[in-house]
Specification:
The structure is a homodimer.
Chain A (H helix, E strand, L loop, with lengths): L8 H19 L4 E2 L1 H8 L3 H9 L5 E2 L3 E3 H12 L5 E6 L3 H9 L7 E7 L9 E2 L2 E4 L4 H7 L4 E4 L3 H13 L4 E4 L13 E4 L2 H19 L5
Parallel strand pairs in A: 4-5, 4-8, 5-7, 8-9, 9-10
Antiparallel strand pairs in A: 1-3, 2-3, 6-7
Chain A binds a DNA duplex through helix 3 and strand 2.
DNA sequence: TAGATTGTTAATCGATTAACAATC
DNA sequence: TAGATTGTTAATCGATTAACAATC
């Protein structure tokens, strides 16, 4: 994929929101949309929308806007969502299980190849059609069927160690849901953190701030 | 809480990371730490750390740095984490259950008052010590015991409707884990989104980008 | 005291917003 | 054609980084 500009992290974080909106519009049979309308629906300025999209090429047409399916497919291709990615779940505790049952992996072109857990009662069983293995099997699985993304849902104490194992095997992406900073030294592994507690703490901060404002205290 | 400066969203997003680090340091009996050391451990510049902290007052001492417990308690107080917040879980599906079992709510001063679900088999049961009610009970519970934070883990189709109900009841914070943009009009409700798919999509983008770079393609 | 490190002011860098020629 | 809207360049705004006096 060839880009026109350097893509900022903020832009990348907005791409899924564009895709989400475009899916909505497509389902409602809207065939085209302007940057102004996209902005209105997502709380962005028209300029921002056009700047974001122009990082990846020219999707629109003057006087008309953007063709919804075309832009959607364009963005999906840019994000790699049109290719199938092999995924494994490390840790079949309740968060792992919840993801297995409720994340629309298949619909979004992710193939959940296996789950891994040290719990002997789980090993050999199936969770929503995905078989659970002992973690030491990961190496063999990866050799047989290369893993693109490891979803890390092990207990916090095992997070760093498991992450290192994954990175050492040469798996290139970790989706980290452990609320632990992995602190990996590997250059060639991409990590995306989803820290539940961090998010809840931020919410709490804003809640307190809003209540202070109502109480008339100085902010 | 009185602040020196306007606190940017980026700064707020970093506060939980400081707290996480300070907890670590406290457990290892480190009694003081410099902005340089904090920066090294979190991948920030010393300046950035000092700028962030100076939004909330003067926690440090020249030539010494920051006292770990003092800074930790200071930040916790600023974020409101030293006060107890009443929480309910809307939607006791597998994500709701996973949160009930694995989020350290209690240890972090959140009191999970109740869970709500339309599933008749769940109503009346207990999940990890939390009783499940029919959603229409929320109103009465909130009158009896004011809810600070609603955790939204209902299916996507019900997300917007449930959010509106919550906001109409006057509950001031929603932690949204539904992968849906709620689009609330209420000014006085604080929403924090945790979009699983958005996060996975961002990871996928970076993975593709990294692979393109390895393949020597132009970026 | 001398070295270390803060809090804050100034400089730089990057992201957002505005403006506008091109054109559907 | 006239109105609408793009893609891009320039202007503005905000966040990060650097510098430094104050001082533990």
């Amino acid at each position: 994929m060839k880009y026109n500009k350097i893509v900022s992290g903020n832009t990348v974080a907005r791409l899924p929101k564009y895709i989400r909106l475009l899916n909505d519009l497509e389902q409602r049979d809207v065939d085209h949309v302007s940057s102004g309308e996209i902005g209105r629906l997502l709380g962005l300025t028209p300029s921002q929308v056009r700047q974001d999209l122009s990082c990846f090429g020219s999707f629109g047409a003057q006087g008309y806007g953007y063709n919804v399916p075309r832009l959607k497919h364009g963005l999906q291709s840019i994000m790699g969502l049109d290719r199938t990615h092999n995924v494994v779940i490390m840790g079949a505790g309740s968060i792992g299980k919840a993801l297995l049952c409720h994340m629309r992996f298949k619909e979004n072109n992710y193939r959940v190849v296996a789950a891994f857990d040290v719990n002997k009662e789980l090993i050999g069983s199936e969770l929503n059609g995905t078989k659970v293995y002992h973690p030491e099997q990961l190496k063999y699985l990866h050799e047989k069927c290369p893993i693109d993304i490891c979803v890390l849902t092990v207990p916090a104490e095992q997070a760093k160690h498991t992450a290192k194992t994954i990175a050492d095997l040469g798996i290139s992406a970790i989706w980290n849901l452990t609320n632990v900073d992995l602190g990996l030294q590997h250059r060639n592994v991409v990590v995306e953190d989803m820290h539940f507690l961090d998010s809840l703490f931020s919410l709490t901060f804003y809640l307190e701030e809003a209540q202070d404002a109502v109480a008339g205290r100085v902010i």
